[in-house]
């Protein structure tokens, strides 16, 4: 009997978090910053955690590298349960986790090269190897010509590039990003996001980032979670969330348009992947002799897929059949009452 050549492949999760809890206590009250969070991030994935200030995002990120000890739950990175480690073993494990910060955290008394070299000193890289590695990292982030400059002589974007080079010094498998672009202007933000996406693809780097900016999720994230009051209210691959009636889909594609039109059925239609570029609305109008008015919406290219969302007014003899056609075509359809 001939065996099938097809094999089931197991997804390797570089980051695995289960039942994570962290509470801050004072004399008067307790605040649950992270309340039972589960999270898996696959190898080479860019995962964004989106939420407002106070949602628990930063605490979650700091628990990943054990800068904050969780009260309960487990955190595994590259197959190692960090919650079981302490002392030297934890410090060594942290070498596999790079981190970039919102406000750069550079040493003002050191040059650009010196800041990157500092990370190599901490990880015990021999002096004879440091200069070559620093040059390699500065070339990687586009700062070879600024090696001898001091942080005070750099722009915000250049400072963040130094921070990224320093975070990559020990060749980590995971990069954590703590609101890395929130202090930057839109043009600089775009350049840093392009750099992170390039590093993800060239180095196979797994990135977990926290942000309150929808632009960041749109631009580079393959998966995302929305965090509120210490919990994930929804999570998954961005392409899948777009195909559901998700909060993320509504926030990614806000529509400023009326929700009622006299004599018409008003619907929100969300599509992704190849469906975003199909003549879906033209097919709808032809098949059902339906007047289709686009009240608002747009199509965009996200990190890994094309996606679009429209608000339509349908005015035909059989709107129910038209809606059924849209659903069978792969669109997510929401009808306004």
From TrEMBL:
Cellular component, GO annotation: plasma membrane
GO molecular function, one term: ATP binding
Keyword Cell membrane: yes
Alphabetic keyword roster: Amino-acid transport, ATP-binding, Cell membrane, Membrane, Nucleotide-binding, Translocase, Transport
Pfam families on file: ABC_tran, NIL
Taxonomic superkingdom: Bacteria
Gene Ontology terms describing biological process: amino acid transport
InterPro entries on file: AAA+_ATPase, ABC_transporter-like_ATP-bd, ABC_transporter-like_CS, ACT-like_dom_sf, MetN_ABC, MetN_ABC_transporter-like, NIL_domain, P-loop_NTPase
Tagged with keyword Transmembrane: no
Occurrences of domain ABC transporter (ranges): 15-254
PROSITE patterns, alphabetized: ABC_TRANSPORTER_1 (PS00211), ABC_TRANSPORTER_2 (PS50893)
Function (record text): Part of the ABC transporter FtsEX involved in cellular division. Has ATPase activity.
Subunit: Homodimer. Forms a membrane-associated complex with FtsX.
Family: Belongs to the ABC transporter superfamily.
Protein name (record): Putative ABC transporter ATP-binding protein
């Amino acid at each position: 009997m001939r065996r099938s050549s097809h094999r089931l492949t197991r997804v390797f999760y570089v980051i695995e978090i289960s039942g994570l809890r962290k509470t801050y206590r004072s004399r008067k009250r307790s605040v649950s910053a992270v309340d039972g969070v589960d999270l898996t991030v696959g190898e080479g994935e860019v995962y964004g955690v989106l939420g407002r200030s106070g949602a628990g995002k930063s605490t979650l990120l700091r628990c990943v590298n054990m800068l904050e000890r969780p009260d309960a739950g487990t955190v595994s990175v590259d197959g190692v349960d960090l919650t079981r480690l302490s002392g030297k073993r934890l410090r060594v494990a942290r070498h596999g986790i790079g981190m970039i910060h919102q406000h750069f955290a550079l040493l003002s008394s050191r040059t650009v090269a010196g800041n990157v070299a500092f990370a190599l000193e901490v990880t015990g890289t021999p002096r004879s190897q440091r200069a070559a590695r620093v040059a390699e990292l500065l070339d990687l982030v586009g700062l070879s010509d600024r090696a001898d400059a001091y942080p005070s002589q750099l722009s915000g974007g250049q400072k963040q590039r130094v921070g990224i080079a320093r975070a990559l010094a020990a060749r980590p498998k995971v990069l954590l990003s703590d609101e890395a672009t929130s202090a930057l202007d839109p043009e600089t933000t775009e350049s840093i996001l392009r750099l992170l996406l390039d590093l993800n693809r060239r180095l196979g780097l797994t990135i977990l980032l926290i942000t309150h900016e929808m632009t960041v999720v749109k631009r580079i994230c393959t998966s995302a979670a929305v965090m509120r009051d210490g919990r994930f209210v929804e999570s998954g691959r961005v392409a899948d969330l777009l195909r559901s009636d998700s909060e993320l889909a509504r926030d990614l594609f806000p529509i400023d348009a009326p929700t009622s039109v006299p004599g018409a059925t008003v619907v929100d239609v969300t599509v992704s992947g190849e469906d975003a570029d199909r003549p879906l609305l033209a097919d709808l109008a032809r098949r059902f002799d339906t007047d289709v008015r686009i009240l608002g919406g747009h199509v965009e290219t996200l990190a890994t897929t094309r996606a679009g969302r429209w608000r339509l007014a349908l005015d035909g003899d059989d709107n129910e059949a038209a809606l059924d056609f849209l659903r069978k075509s792969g669109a997510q359809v929401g009808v306004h009452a």
